[in-house]
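Predict the 3D structure for this chain.
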Amino acid sequence: MGYSGIHEKAPRGCYPSISLFTGAYGLDLGLERAGFEIRACVEKNPFAVQTILRNRPQLAGCVLQEDVRNVSAYRLLKIAGLRRGEAALVSGGPPCQPFSTIGRRRSVSTEDGTLFQKFLDLVWGIKPTFFVFENVKGIISAALRHQPLENRKNAREPRGKKVRLGSAWDFIRGCFDKTLRRDKKYGYHTYIWELNAADFGTAQVRKRVFIVGSRNGYALEKPIGRFASCHRPIRNVISHLDGGHETLGVDYRPYDAVRAHIFTNKLVKPGENWRVLPKMWQKKVMGAAYYSWGGRVGFARRISWDNPCPTITTDPRGRATNLCHPTKARPFTTTECALLQGYPEDWQFEGSLTQRYIQIGNAVPVELGEGIGRSLINWFEEGCS
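Done. Predicted structure below.
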C-alpha cells in the first residue's frame, strides 16, 4: 500500500465514495441522492458495466470491469483520486446466491461465499470513514455446511456444529471483528442493520442485512424509514404503464403452460396464490413442493394492486417466487420490476432480456440506498460539526 496517512474526516460537502460489486448501480444511485460522489466502481458483469456507463457517462475511466479479487486498494484509490483515509465510504454487496434461502445455500464453501473477505481487505486498504456491506436476510441463518430439508429427518433445525443455522453468520461476523478491529487507533465499530426497503418508500417488501462500519467508533443511528407505518402499494408506481409504454418482458407460454392456463382463465385473483386452486391444479402447479411444508406463498401468485410487491428476483417466473401482474396473464416486465426497485423511469439497462432481469433483480432498491446514505451524511453534517 502506497498511502499511509489517515485523514480524520471528509471535508464538509465532499463525500467521495468507492463502490464494490456495483451491479446496475441501484445502491449507488441511492447514495448519490443522499449526497455521496461515486469516484470508482468495480463490476465484472459486462452488461452491468454498460448499464452504468449508459446512464453515468461521466464515470468513464472510473469503472473497472474486473473480478474484485484482482483489484487492489491502491489502484482504486488512484482511480478515485484519493489517499488512504480520505474516502468517506466504501460500499458493496457480494453475490447473495450462496446465502439466499431460495438457492442451494452453499454459503462460505463457495468462492462467491468468501468474497466478504476481499471486501474486508479493500476496506482495510482504503480506510474509509464508513463502510456498508449488504446481503440477503438469509445470510443470518446460513450454516457453514447447508443441510437440505430432505436430510433433516423431519426436523426443521439441523443438528451438528457446522450445519447449525447461523454458524456461517457467526464466522463472517468474527472475520469482520478480527480484521477491522486490529488497529486500536483506526479500527472500526460495526453495526448490524436489518432493513426493509418498503419502510423507505420502495413499493416492494425486500428485507436486507447491512453490516455498517464506523471508523474510530463514530456513533451511528439505525435509519428509520418514513414509510414504515404505511407502505406504498404498487398501484402508485406502475399502474400508469398500462397506457402503452414501451416495455420488455417474459411470458409464461411456452415456458409453463399450466401457469399460463391458470392466469389466463383468472383462476387466481389479485392477492391470491395456489391455495385457492382446485386440488388438481394445485398439484400440477406445485409439483413435488405440494407435499412439502411451509407457506409456499410464491407459487402461482398474482400480485395485488393495493400492497407492495414481494421481493423482486432475477426471474419473475420463478416457480416459488412467481410475480404475476394484477390484471394481465403475464409476469412483471423489466420496466415494472425496475420501477418497483426504485429506479427512475428513464434509467436504461443494457444486454439481453435475461441480463436485464438479472441486473434489476440483484440490485439494492434505490430508496433503501438513499436512506442508508442519509444516515451517514447526517454524521458528516451534524455529528462532526
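The radius of gyration is 22 Å.
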